[in-house]
Structure formats: C-alpha cells, structure tokens
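Standup notes, structure subgroup. Blocker cleared on the calcium ion input:
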Amino acid sequence: MAALGLLSSMIWLMAFGSLPVLIHSMTWKKTIGIMNNRIFRYVPNTVWSVVLFLTVLLLNQTYAADPFFTGKDGGEMILIPEGEFIMGLREDEPGSEGNPYKRVFLSPFYIDKYEVTNVLYKKCIRASICRQPSLIIDYPRTFFEDGKHWFSDETMGQYPVVGLSWNQASLYCRWAGKRLPTAAEWEKAARGSNGRTYPWGNRWDETKANWDDNGRADGYRKLAPVGSFPEGRSPYGVMDMAGNVRELVDSLVFKGGSWYSYPKSLRSGDPGHGYTVERDDDIGFRCARDIEQMAHEKKHVK
Ligand SMILES: [Ca+2]
Ligand SMILES: [Ca+2]
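Run returned:
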C-alpha cells in the first residue's frame, strides 16, 4: 500500500510538473540527440508534452486507484495473514461459559482498516444502491450537542455510519465488492493470534477506545471520527475494534462494544449477544474480502 501510494504521488508530481516545464522548454529536443531528426523537429513541443501528460495520467489511474486494495468504496483494507488464532474468552473471565478459548485456523483475508464512514456510505447512496440510514428510535442522544445531524451534516463525514439494518450493511459491502466479515475473522483482526483481551493488550486502558465514559477519559461523549485512537489499534493495525460503534458481522451478533458500552463489552472475545435492536445509534460495521476473490477478479481484468 505504502509503495503504491508513493508511486501514485510521484506520478501525479510528474504529470503536473512535466506539462509546464516541457511547454516552456524550447531547447528540450536539442539536448537529446535522438530527438534531433525530421520527425521530432516538425512536431511541436506542446504535442509531446500533451502525449507525456496523458500517458502519465493513464499510469496513475492504473496504479493509484487499484480496487484490489480498497474495494469500490475506496475504503483502505488490511491483510490479515493465514494462520491459527485464539478465539473466545479465558476461563477466568466473565462470560467464558459457553464461549471458551479455542484455536481457530483462518485463510488470509482483507478487512477494512476503519469502520465504514458516512462519507463512504454516501457513495453507495449516490450509486442508487444504498438507502438513507435512519434510526429505529430517534433518541435525543443521537444529535450532537451543537445540533449537528449525525449523518447529513457535512462535517460528520469521517464519523462511522449508524442507523443501518444488517441487510443494508451487507448490501453496502456487496456493492463495494466485499462482504461482511465472519465473527471469527472480525475477532482475529481485532486481537491477533495470541488471545489478548483488547486490541492493544490484556490490560484495560480507558484512554485507548471510545467507550461509555461520558467523555471523561477518552474525550468523546458520543461517536468519534474513525481512527481517533491510533494507540488502541489491533496487532495488524486495524482501528476502533474496541468501542466507537459495535460492529455487525455476517452472523447476527455485534462485536467490539461501542461508545455506549462498558469495558466488558469492548473485549474482542466478547460474544456480543444480548442486543437485538437494529438501526441503533451505536451500531456500525466494516467489510472484509477474500484473497481468492481478489486474485480471480484481477485475472479477469487483465
Ligand atoms: Ca467516550
Ligand atoms: Ca468499533
């Protein structure tokens, strides 16, 4: 990803840098011996410049907007490598009955680095695939103190989208060329392979996630923009796997707890049962993607 980003930036720099430089470079052809023949002499500099500009632009489109790392929605994804991980809760933890530690093997997959944001969800609405989110109960708490609307206000673009049903979330992922993660995939992406309790480790830290503290320790009374807690990232660099919005997966459970949850629900191994309300103001999601699917599509594009 970093290499692609660097390449993309360089290409853009070349594209915008080359055009004015070449147009004004009247001695350009003479400095390169091979250009100093009949064909090149009678083609104006501006034409060569435009050709170069368009080539560079085309290259940029090819490498910068690679849908295999971002999906159609442009949401950045992270590779979770193949292998075993420990799922569930330690024997001495509350809730471990019925959800004990177990080893689970998973093939590699990609998962969104961030919770799906309002700005990304709006792309799917503009494509006439997704419907507007709406809350099943319009709690007063869904409005921010200054009266901003949680979805329509333009300054809320980087906040996670809420107010969706499971079907709406699933539809979004499919539109983006992705799917909802399984509970196991979600949990591995959140806690890594060694069964740690929270994405950052085994000890609770009230400053590393957005939870129900009324803003006292984490700085947020309600939702926070995605990626606001980089120190709370998972071993793979996935953000907000504890708190902010609890996340829909492909089974009907919610993972990771939210801004309206206490630390117990923020444990990555928490089964996330006990909530049945859809389209709530603390429920969001992120998408996943198969490696095989990506390789298959790439072959077809070529
Ligand atoms: Ca909070
Ligand atoms: Ca979350």
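Discussed briefly. Confidence is low (pLDDT under 50) at residues 1-6.
Next: hand off to the docking folks.
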